[in-house]
Structure formats: C-alpha cells, structure tokens
Amino acid sequence: MDIFDAIATRRSVRKYTDRPVTDEDIRTGLEAAMMAPSAGNAQPWHFVVVRDAALRARVAELNVYAAMARTAPAGILVCGDLHLEKYPGFWVQDCSAAIQNLLLAAHGLGLGAVWTGIHPVAEREEGFRRAFGLPAEVVPLGYIVLGHPDQHPHSGSRFREDRVHRDVW
C-alpha cells in the first residue's frame, strides 16, 4: 500500500470480527511503532499487549470510549516511561508518534484499530495503572483496540485551507 493511500484511507475502526490477531501481526505493528521519532532518540515507550478477555473487559470499564475493547481480540496499552526521557515532557509526543505508526501498520496489515485516550485524565491513568500493574514512573497514554475490521469507514479529504497560514498568522 502506498504511504499516501494508507494515510488517506486509515480510519478508526470500532467493530471487529472474532478472528484472532496473529503474534506476527502484533510484532510487525510494534516494530513500526518503535521506529517512530522521539526527542533525543530516548524511545521512552513501553507496550502491553492485551489478549485476555477479562482485561479487555476491564479496559472498557475504565474508559467509556473504549467499549469496543470487549469485542476486539486484542489491544495494546501504550505507556511512557518518565525515567527514559532525555527531555522531560516530550514523552507524550514520542508515544503519540509511536501510536500513529502502529495505527498505520495495522491498516497496512488489513487490521482495524482505534486509539482510545487515557492521559491526561488522572482517573483513567490511575485505573489503568492499577489494572495493569504499572510502575509509578510509567504513564499510560492510550489504549489501541485492535482486530480484524467488521466495518470499513470512509471519508473524503479533510484538508482545510482556512487552517493553513503562510509565514505569519
């Protein structure tokens, strides 16, 4: 798939079949995620691969916007490790870039995915921290619901000239 086609056609998928996601596809997605740029090349990310049905149901309880985690066969919790940062505060950008790579890789593999937010909602952070046994210095940024799509959302161009400024505002 051409990179521009991938960017233009990737959409958030919220309905999945019960077909499992292979370990190979998970690894390919994580390899893509870990190729993301990061401040000072710190790579402050950690990933928790979630297949357990009870944990996926817990995700749906912790984040109302992740209800589809119950029915998707897999998910990936993306976290930033504050002890790995070279430039404090940039872990959010670093892990966000990793998530975007992961979403594009999933799409390229024929999988569907949706990024559900955790940080900066303190209550969600604490819930995920407890449910997944995260150390204090590790902050959950987002949970990626992952599976074979049972829907194929489309949209046209989102380009908006009124949001582009030349040289100055």
From TrEMBL:
Gene3D superfamilies: NADH Oxidase. One of its GO terms (molecular function) is oxidoreductase activity. Pfam families: Nitroreductase (PF00881). Residues 7-62, 64-148 form the Nitroreductase domain. It comes from the Bacteria. The keyword Hydrolase does not apply. CDD domains: nitroreductase. Keywords: Oxidoreductase. The keyword Electron transport does not apply. InterPro entries: Nitroreductase, Nitroreductase-like. Belongs to the nitroreductase family. This is NADH dehydrogenase. It comes from Desulfomicrobium orale DSM 12838.
